[in-house]
Every structure is written in C-alpha cells, then in structure tokens.
Write a structure and sequence with these properties.
The protein is mainly α. Helices cover 47% and strands 4% of the residues. α9 packs across α11.
Length: 329
C-alpha cells in the first residue's frame, strides 16, 4: 500500500511538472533581446516612431495602451486585432473606436525596410504600448520578445473575452482569471485608465437621458459634482456616441496614480472603475496605490509583463506578417 501511494504520488508529480512545463512553454520561448542579432535597431525604431506620433497627437499613448489590451485578451497577444476584413476582431462594434493603427503600420513599414520578415506585429504592439506608458511618465518595463502573429481573427470571440464598463468585480475577476491574471493584476492594470479618453456612450448607464436629450445623474456611487461635469462635457460634445471625455479628469496626459486618487473620492469614469473602491477584495489596494505611486508603478511592471504574455504564439505557432493588416500569402 505504501509503495502504491509513493508510485501514485510520483506519477502525479511527474504529470504536474509536465503540465506546468507545457503551460509555460510558449512564455518561456520569449526572450529578452530577441532581436539583438537579427534586428538590433527594432526597439529603437519602435520607440522613435511612437514618440514622434505622440508629439503630433497626444492621444496616441492612450490609444496604443488600449490596443494592447484588446489584442491580448482575445486570442492572446498575437496581433489578431490588426487584421482587416469582414468578421475579424476589428469589425466587432466593441473595437470600432480603437486607434493607434497608423502608428503600428508606420513602425512595420520601417522595420520591413531594415529587417524584412523579422519583427512581428505582435511584438510591435506590446513594445509600442510599453513605450507609450514610459513616455507619459510611467515606469520603464523590460519585456521579453519573440511573439509570432496569429493566423486567426474572429469577431465572434470578442465580446466573451473583453471587459465591459458596466462589469461587476465578480465578472471582472472571472474574466481576468481566465487569462491567468490575479485580482492584483486587475486593480493594477485598471490603472491604464489614468491616460486616454472614452466616448460618452460608454458611461450612459450612469445617467438618465430624457426625450429632449437632457441628462440626469442616477448612479449614487459617482461624486455629484463630477457627474454634473461629465454631463456638461457630454452634452457640449453633441451626440453621446461621438463626444469624448478624459478617463482621468485631473492628469489625462500623464501616466501616474491620479486614477486611484480619483476612485477614492468617487470620481471613477466607468461603473467598473467605481466597483474597485466599493468591494473589499480590491478597496485596500486602490487606497494603497492612491497613496503610493511607487507601489503602483512597481506592481504595473509585473502585471504588464503578464498581460503581454497571455497565450503568446512562438516558433512555428504563427508567422511574421509582412503587413500587419493581412495574413502572408
């Protein structure tokens, strides 16, 4: 009986080690300085292009950061969000407001001149988002590279894999857990809302609109004065589907911990933001990041690395596209 138990335990451990090795194999194949020999100027070219685009359009960093989330949460970090065509991820209504594509395309065109067929669009998205954060005052993050571009993109996969602005903590933790991300990652990565803008239609649930288009605040979790400010901005912008408001009304162009300070005083833009400071599982972390930008930045480095490693494709499990918007032929 003892020998049987030992053999069973040994077999279980072997299977467990095998499963863990299989699970981590794709991530393990990502390496730092992946392009050191094949395209040593790759990250320099990406950084310069992002910086130039951001100087011309300050909204670019927020768009690039949002883009990496929408890519990695659906099919993993494989640039499937960039593929154009009927029925692709980009055609889903949830992705129609995405931006930053021209920056990625510009980077790819330059890289195809200097290093044809070497640098994947998936790596470009991840590095560009990383650089966008740093350029707006955020922390430096060294991420491994070697991602391959996926060969599949379907709009039908988007809704079940993306968080909605009305999500509860339960819904968000369930979604993040399915991507290998923890509650800590959820709170940390929500800090991406410290830069960028959103359409007023995404906060429609926090207001009541009458037949004349007038808005009335109905969400008690939202600071009254902030709610009134949002209503004025949205109405001044015309159609709620096109009017824009800043994710962070205080420092919308700076990657800092102001987002968490806003949450503590009930000035979170989305219902999903407000939920973070109302739930005991996340409230303490929000308050901690609100008082310490250093702790937020430290946590961001680790969580961003995890985000950009979701279901990556490496080796033969993908391709390096010549054009980010279409498969290789």
């Amino acid at each position: 009986m003892g020998k049987y138990r030992k053999d069973s335990l040994l077999g279980f451990l072997i299977l467990l080690i095998f499963d863990l090795a299989t699970f981590n194999s794709s991530v393990a194949q990502l390496t730092f300085d992946f392009y050191a020999a094949s395209c040593p100027s790759a990250e320099f070219i990406i950084r310069n292009t992002v910086q130039s685009a951001s100087l011309n359009d300050p909204s670019i960093p927020g768009k690039l950061l949002r883009l990496v989330f929408h890519d990695c949460f659906v099919e993993g970090c494989d640039a499937s969000i960039l593929l154009k065509g009927n029925g692709t991820e980009g055609s889903d209504p949830a992705n129609l407001s995405l931006g930053g594509f021209s920056v990625i395309d510009s980077v790819k065109r330059v890289l195809e001149i200097f290093c044809p067929g070497i640098v994947s669009c998936a790596d470009i998205i991840a590095i560009a988002a990383r650089d966008a954060v740093e350029m707006t005052g955020g922390p430096q993050v060294r991420i491994a590279t070697g991602r391959r571009d996926g060969r599949f993109s379907a709009a039908s996969n988007v809704r079940s894999n993306m968080a909605d602005t009305t999500f509860s903590i339960d819904a968000m933790t369930k979604l993040f857990s399915s991507k290998g991300l923890s509650v800590n990652d959820l709170v940390t990565l929500s800090g991406a809302h410290t830069i960028g803008t959103a359409h007023c239609s995404t906060v429609r649930d926090r207001f009541k609109e009458d037949s004349r288009g007038r808005l009335t605040g109905i969400d008690p979790s939202l600071d009254k004065l902030y709610g009134e400010e949002l209503m004025r901005e949205c109405l001044a912008g015309g159609d709620l589907s096109s009017a824009l408001v800043s994710n962070d009304p205080q420092t919308s162009l700076s990657f800092d911990n102001q987002y968490y300070k806003n949450l503590v005083v009930h000035k979170g833009l989305f219902q999903s933001d407000s939920a973070l400071v109302e739930d005991e599982r996340t409230k303490n972390m929000v308050e901690d990041f609100a008082t310490s930008q250093e702790r937020f930045f430290s946590s961001w480095v680790e969580s961003f690395r995890k985000l950009t490693s979701i279901k990556v494709k490496t080796g033969d499990a993908g391709e390096v596209r010549r054009s980010c918007s279409s498969f290789n032929r």
